[in-house]
Design brief:
The protein has 163 residues and is of the alpha/beta class. It has 5 helices and 5 strands; from the N terminus they run βαβαββαβαα. 39% of the residues lie in helices and 16% in strands.
Length: 163
């Protein structure tokens, strides 16, 4: 796998890099990828955007589990300000602080912290909400203007068509 990773000259000297990868493969591929990154990139926080593999398992593939975390950007990325930062039991406060600062200042996003678990915080909140809304809709359909006004007032998202 290391033959497919290319590092620009001097990348090891960068001290505030958050590297995000998005392999679409099995857990062993992620672990191998993180083990390789650990050897070729110094001083960087290693971050994954997969929520299906515990961050703790990825951290265990490196010699610096205190610098491994999850970063979940929400779609559409240009419109959604939220970024979920996920630390394992081994992720240091310094790494979380550094990533939070970078996400907020450099990317102009709103970071939230969560613990290492399957799924996203927003998903854990949104799925029951949507399920309840569907059940409510089946029981007593309100006029579409009523539900549209309720959604636009409650959601306040940039992608909700309100007006």
């Amino acid at each position: 796998m290391s033959s497919r990773i290319r590092c620009p000259a001097g990348l090891g000297e960068v001290s505030a890099v958050v590297l995000q990868q998005s392999l679409r493969d099995v857990e062993s591929a992620y672990r191998n990828f993180f083990a390789t990154l650990d050897k070729v990139i110094e001083e960087a926080i290693l971050a994954s955007n997969t929520s299906s593999i515990p961050i703790m398992k990825l951290a265990g593939a490196t010699g610096r589990p205190d610098q491994v975390m999850g970063t979940y950007f929400f779609n559409p990325v240009p419109a959604m300000p939220l970024v979920e930062l996920v630390g394992s039991l081994h992720t240091s406060d310094a790494s979380m602080d550094r990533a939070e600062s970078g996400v907020a200042q450099t990317l102009d996003k709103q970071p939230i912290r969560s613990k290492d678990r399957a799924g996203f915080v927003v998903g854990a909140l949104l799925v029951p909400y949507l399920s309840s809304a569907c059940a409510w809709w089946r029981r007593a359909s309100p006029p579409s203007t009523t539900s549209a006004r309720a959604w636009c007032s409650a959601a306040r998202t940039q992608w909700a068509r309100c007006g």
